[in-house]
Amino acid sequence: MMEQTRSALLRLAQELEGRSVGKFPPERELAARLGTSRTTVRSALDALEREGLVHRVKGRAGGAFLTSVHADAPTPENARSLCASRRLSRNLNTVMGVPQMLQEQGFQDGTRVLSARLERPSPRAAQILGVSPDRDVISLLRLRFADGDTLSLERMYLGDPGCRDLLRTHMDSVYEALRCKFGIDISATDESIELAEVSSSVSTLLGQPMPAPVLKLERIGYDQHERPVEYSVDLFRADRTRLSVSTRPGHRV
């Protein structure tokens, strides 16, 4: 487990270096994001310090700092390195949950469930799902991590009343839970993507300075019977996400 955590922190170090960010998040936060203990995180940071990649400072203003990043790095250079940082490749041709995407691309995925409950849907969600605005549906709000750093914030509504027991299951991969436990296979989606600004509270959750833009992805998920069962809005950090799409002659996307 320590070696897996060390590998995740090493990838995070490369990501932070690419953005000229010199300090790791606190140990407690890293442990929560990576799903491990503070002792394991501390041991992994100790290993990186022995390798000369990190130096530790004690005290209130202390923490784990990258030896390769200097606080006075010039701003234009920061912008160039931002483009070169490692990003999640979001393939628009595939129907896949975020955890599976991350795992297939060598990231260690993490999820923090901010809320999971039954509540009235938004007007847009009610219209898409074909439900009454006065009827409760499943509402999930989740923060996603890649190698311990924030990636996206997701609001998901599920309109099928038969899957309400989902609230009693693990919330990391909803698509997998829907398929395995409720026989609902999200097999097709309609997605739209635009650049957006967010509120200060969302910016804080994503670890983004104001007014950094995000990629706003609106998604309608259809089950194997072509019924709209999911309506989601994802906010992806633009500095950590690359969109890709493939087309072939005679292939409609």
TrEMBL record:
Keyword Metal-binding on entry: no
Q: Which GO terms describe its molecular function?
A: DNA binding; DNA-binding transcription factor activity
Gene3D superfamilies the record matches: Chorismate lyase-like, Winged helix-like DNA-binding domain superfamily/Winged helix DNA-binding domain
Gene Ontology BP term (one) = negative regulation of DNA-templated transcription
Q: Which residues form the HTH gntR-type domain?
A: 1-69
Q: Name one Pfam family in it.
A: UTRA
Whether DNA-binding counts among this entry's keywords is: yes
Source domain of life is: Bacteria
Alphabetized, the UniProt keywords read: DNA-binding, Transcription, Transcription regulation
* Record's protein name: GntR family transcriptional regulator
Organism expressing this protein natively:
Rhodococcus qingshengii JCM 15477
